[in-house]
């Protein structure tokens, strides 16, 4: 069956969150359903939240349906070999009007054992930051279960956690087990394994509209936490019209493309590629067909597409599995 594959965009899956705001609308024009919209899931195959193609020949089809029909052509030969028909990554934009809870994600082994799920290694790219906005990442110094539990009980957990001021363009790579929280005033592009497993450690004792506090997962988290001090911030080059490596891990590779003009891309068919536009606008040209994108757009290039041209003035995150 000869199908003309093209760059795929999906309808955003929008999530109301106690900490969310309205920047996904004001900055990206997402059709948010509430004034507390915290997340736009751009590409997802998490059960119950499956992405659906927005336009083109495959409009209305889900990503899982497409993978089922064309596994190697969508995913890539090597990705299909490794993961079967599972789409292994989840792509999001987040708007933190308030601090997120302090949380941790389990590794593959623990997540598989407890939840039949992937773990959740993730990375953040800071798209917008209010003055003084910060994130919490890991411990200031090496810690242990006893010290952590004592501070949790005394509501002094923040005193032993590392806080970093965040600014536009900052990149943080969070391996599983890293205690973390996105602080108020940040808009983040997030790339992670396909997993929705989060252990909430502390939620600043806040209450929802009904006066209820959110569930904590203190016991589950104990064996998931890495109590060692970690280095999470990543430095990267900014060479124009080149793919500058930011993160290279077993789960994904992310590059930064500062696009100014045109860039030809030739790739193999081992893996799909995802482009997240984090600033400006650009087009993708394939066989004389042009597709236009702007800040806040996410596009999936099926692995079958091996030649294309990028054109425009934009900052782009380029993600694939190597």
Automatic annotation (TrEMBL):
Domain Phosphomannose isomerase type I catalytic: 11-116
One GO BP annotation of this record: carbohydrate metabolic process
Record-linked Pfam families: MPI_cupin_dom (PF21621), PMI_typeI_cat (PF20511)
UniProt-annotated catalytic positions: 200
All copies of domain Mannose-6-phosphate isomerase cupin, residue ranges: 245-320
Single annotated GO MF: mannose-6-phosphate isomerase activity
Cofactor(s) needed: Zn(2+)
Name the UniProt record assigns to this protein: Phosphohexomutase
Organism: Flavobacterium agrisoli
Organism taxonomic ancestry: Bacteria, Pseudomonadati, Bacteroidota, Flavobacteriia, Flavobacteriales
